[in-house]
């Protein structure tokens, strides 16, 4: 009997070792099966520690297959953690989540196997984008390991901590690039600086540990070099922008790069002491870093390291690794890039690795585009976009960093494709509109972190009013493309040098986002707005009527500017047209406001409340006593309405009202902010802020109660975050989450008295049968005719996004 048990144990040990061999060769599925079989045997033998060890091994195979959520679940099972669960959001862990996580960690017995499991849990949380949780797990694991004096394990944990801090640095860097809000950027600079230095310190601790394994030291050096090169580049940009406080840091970082490169080259034989596939990936990592230097000799050396990695990949028949090798060779060797990228693509497609297929398709598309081969470039841009859609569908819901992935990977791909289409002499304007619309819609879905939105193209509308023109403004950096769809649906195009536009655009944005906008000279506003009109609209003016509705599909840089500020030299365009904005020319399936006496939920906050102190609330808020007047005035226009004012306007009561009643109109008059960051797109209830994600949950309650959509959502007294250029994204996001036909909101905090008058006039217009857009225009005209409120500050900040009927 003992001999039989011994044979079974030997079989499990053989399968465990076999799994490691297969993992090193990149055969993840086969490794997973071997470890599953070994786990089954150890369970039969009631060897709990061996079971846990093989569950941890299975997690490594699942990581290799990209199944991070499955890997995380497996690790929690191995560690017997059932009191804490993972939620995919970008939020830092709150107090209750932290407490639950610490409690779960403290219940784990500090054995070598469990410490390995905890370290792997920290690693997988990093891959899932839960960086705060990853750091907590790894710090606690390090503390346990230090108490057990397991030095080898300590160096490995330090490597994981360095990698998590590097991921924090990378996230902050991307946030800094795509969120233009000034206050946010200032805070993020500090985060970037701190995260980079802490990460480098962890890697240095490994190099200072005499008995740290060679493989760990080499990885620490390679990861450190990657960070040093990127951080040095970021610091250079910051210094050029005038941030002189980082001069010393820049000097210290730059002087570390070359000595570290020399050290790795000197000890290059260490690459061969790593497991086979790990060695190849390490060489690719080093080659990529060498290519980022300006040293031609080092760039040439990078090719040698990549070719060596390719030989290894071929020897173990690792097709994923071969794809990476060929792709990097394509980047390193421009003369052979076409052949290399095609080889990389073939290997990636052979194993259906869509997460890298898109990259080689994009490289080929860009290459063909540079060569003037538009047909081939279009084919690969389309293919890359389709591959990316699949990749992002897998990322959504599992990794919150997919939000940043969009701005780094997805948006540039779409814009390069639009540039190609715009440069084509034949100019397929319909295709340009279609690709841009898809980009804007994907941008909105990315903002909301959702997979689907019920929006339809304006072209699908059967009865588009005859006086309606649709104007697309697309920013391609060097040019601004304007495409007008006339009332007869014909398309007309105007291309403008962006240099002629950007100065006027930025000056006008600075004015409207200034706290002193109301006192700015009206003639200066007209100067910039007239120039924008002359360049963008005037050349196409003959293709639409002299009155009616102008529907704007605006690109990012134009979204914080109300289009009715445009001036034709005689008057503001709001004198002639009503206005609406859409996201990529898509809206909710339209429906005119009910002719019956509508019901409304009217909520307002006129006094200082606990929500003013929320960390996500805008800074420097003051009470809005005029809100009480605004709410009372609207109540007189919509008699059948429910009012929640001040203490009655709590998040809970607001939720309750939406869940038990159907309100075609929801009017909220309170402080709020539109941001390109969903967490900071908020409205203030009395007790706390309600961000867009909370708001979505509230609206779902109404949807469950009644299938009728919200016909009109009005957010009064809100503002765009300073420096934000994606305000319409926040507004459209609120409307999309609410399933609202239309949303009207203010881009800046407007005077309370004038807002009360404007809103009263607006609802009076709706009651008299005007469309939403025309009712808003008439309200603005009525307000601006009052000498006290003729300045654009008082009336131009209100914009309509979505359906205008």
What layout of secondary structure does this protein have?
Layout: H1 2-24, H2 28-44, H3 48-64, H4 68-78, H5 95-106, H6 112-127, H7 131-147, H8 151-178, H9 182-207, H10 214-240, H11 247-266, H12 276-291, H13 296-315, H14 319-332, H15 337-350, H16 354-370, H17 374-395, H18 402-423, H19 429-448, E1 456-457, E2 468-475, E3 479-485, E4 491-497, H20 498-512, H21 522-537, E5 548-554, E6 577-582, E7 586-587, E8 600-604, H22 626-637, E9 641-645, H23 651-660, E10 665-674, E11 682-684, E12 689-691, H24 692-705, E13 712-720, H25 727-738, E14 742-746, H26 752-767, H27 772-784, H28 792-795, E15 798-802
Parallel strand pairs: 2-5, 5-6, 8-9, 8-10, 10-13, 13-14
Antiparallel strand pairs: 1-7, 2-3, 3-4, 10-11, 11-12, 14-15
Descriptive notes:
With 805 residues, the protein is α/β, with parallel strands linked by helices. Among the domains are: 458-587, Nucleotidyltransferase, domain 5 (2-Layer Sandwich); 600-802, Rossmann fold (3-Layer(aba) Sandwich). Helices cover 59% and strands 10% of the residues. It is built from 28 helices and 15 strands. Strands 8, 9, 10, 11, 12, 13, 14 and 15 form an eight-stranded mixed beta sheet that branches. A five-stranded mixed beta sheet has the order 4-3-2-5-6, sandwiched between helices. The protein has a two-stranded antiparallel sheet with strand order 1-7. The longest helix is centred in the N-terminal third of the chain and has 28 residues, at 151-178. The protein is globular and about 90 Å long. The model has no long low-confidence stretch (mean pLDDT 86).
């Amino acid at each position: 009997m003992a001999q039989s048990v011994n044979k079974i144990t030997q079989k499990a040990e053989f399968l465990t070792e076999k799994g490691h061999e297969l993992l090193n060769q990149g055969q993840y599925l086969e490794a997973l099966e071997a470890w599953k079989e070994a786990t089954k045997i150890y369970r039969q033998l009631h060897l709990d520690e061996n079971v846990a060890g093989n569950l941890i091994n299975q997690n490594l195979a699942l990581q290799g297959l990209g199944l991070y959520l499955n890997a995380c679940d497996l690790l929690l099972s191995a560690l017997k953690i059932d009191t804490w669960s993972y939620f995919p959001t970008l939020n830092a862990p709150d107090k209750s989540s932290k407490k639950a996580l610490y409690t779960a960690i403290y219940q784990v017995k500090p054995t070598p196997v469990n410490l390995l499991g905890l370290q792997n849990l920290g690693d997988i949380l990093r891959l899932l984008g839960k960086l705060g949780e990853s750091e907590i797990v790894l710090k606690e694991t390090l503390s346990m390991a230090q108490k057990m004096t397991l030095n080898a394990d300590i160096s490995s944990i330090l490597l994981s901590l360095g990698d998590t801090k590097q991921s924090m640095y990378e996230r902050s860097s991307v946030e800094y690039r795509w969120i233009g809000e000034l206050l946010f950027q200032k805070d993020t600079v500090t985060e970037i600086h701190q995260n980079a230095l802490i990460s480098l310190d962890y890697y240095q601790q490994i190099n200072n540990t005499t008995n740290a394994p060679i493989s760990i030291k080499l990885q620490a050096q390679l990861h450190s070099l990657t960070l040093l090169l990127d951080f040095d580049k970021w610091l250079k940009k910051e210094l050029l922008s005038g941030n002189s406080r980082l001069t010393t840091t820049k000097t210290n970082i730059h002087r570390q790069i070359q000595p570290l490169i020399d050290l790795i080259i000197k000890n290059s034989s260490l690459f061969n002491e790593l497991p086979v596939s790990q060695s190849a990936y390490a060489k690719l990592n080093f080659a990529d870093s060498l290519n980022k230097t300006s040293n031609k000799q080092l760039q040439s050396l990078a090719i040698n390291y990549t070719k060596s990695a390719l030989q290894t990949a071929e020897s173990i028949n690792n097709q994923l690794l071969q794809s990476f090798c060929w792709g990097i060779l394509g980047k390193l060797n421009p003369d052979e890039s076409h052949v290399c990228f095609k080889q990389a693509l073939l290997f990636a497609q052979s194993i259906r690795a869509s997460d890298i297929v898109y990259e080689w398709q994009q490289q080929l598309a860009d290459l063909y585009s540079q060569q003037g081969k538009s047909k081939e470039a279009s084919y690969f841009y389309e293919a890359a976009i389709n591959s990316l859609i699949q990749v992002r569908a897998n990322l959504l819901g599992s990794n919150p960093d997919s939000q940043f992935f969009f701005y780094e990977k997805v948006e540039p791909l779409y814009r390069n494709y639009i540039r190609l289409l715009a440069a084509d002499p034949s100019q397929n304007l319909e295709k340009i509109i279609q690709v841009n619309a898809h980009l804007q819609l994907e941008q909105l879905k990315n903002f909301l972190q959702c997979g689907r939105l019920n929006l339809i193209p304006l072209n699908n509308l059967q009865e588009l009013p005859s006086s309606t023109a649709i104007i697309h403004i697309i920013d391609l950096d060097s040019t601004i493309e304007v495409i007008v769809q006339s009332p007869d649906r014909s398309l007309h195009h105007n291309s403008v040098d962006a240099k002629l536009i950007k100065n006027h655009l930025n000056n006008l944005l600075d004015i409207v986002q200034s706290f002193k906008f109301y006192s700015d000279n009206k003639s200066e506003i007209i100067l910039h707005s007239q120039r924008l009109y002359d360049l963008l609209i005037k050349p196409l003016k003959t293709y639409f009527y002299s009155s009616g509705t102008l529907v704007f599909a605006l690109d990012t840089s134009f979204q914080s500017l109300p289009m009715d500020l445009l001036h034709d030299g005689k008057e503001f365009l709001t004198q002639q047209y009503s206005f609406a904005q859409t996201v990529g020319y898509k809206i909710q399936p339209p429906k005119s406001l009910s002719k019956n006496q509508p019901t409304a939920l009217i909520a307002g906050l006129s006094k200082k409340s606990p929500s003013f102190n929320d960390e996500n609330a805008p800074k420097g808020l003051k009470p809005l006593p005029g809100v009480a007047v605004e709410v009372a005035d609207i109540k007189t226009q919509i008699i059948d309405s429910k009012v929640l004012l001040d203490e009655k306007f709590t998040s809970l009561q607001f939720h309750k009202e939406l869940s038990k009643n159907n309100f075609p109109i929801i009017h909220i008059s309170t402080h709020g902010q539109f941001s390109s960051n969903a967490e900071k797109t908020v409205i203030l209830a009395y007790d706390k802020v309600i961000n867009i994600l909370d708001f979505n949950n509230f609206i779902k309650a109404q949807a469950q109660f009644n299938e009728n959509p919200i016909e009109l959502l009005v957010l009064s007294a809100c503002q765009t975050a300073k420096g934000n250029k994606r305000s319409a994204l926040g507004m459209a996001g609120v409307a999309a989450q609410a399933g609202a036909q239309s949303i009207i909101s203010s881009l800046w905090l407007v005077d309370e008295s004038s807002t009360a008058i404007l809103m009263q006039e607006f609802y009076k217009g709706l009651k008299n049968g005007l469309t939403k857009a025309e009712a808003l225009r008439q309200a603005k005209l009525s307000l601006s005719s009052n000498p006290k409120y003729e300045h654009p500050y008082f009336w131009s900040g209100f914009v309509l996004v979505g359906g205008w009927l």
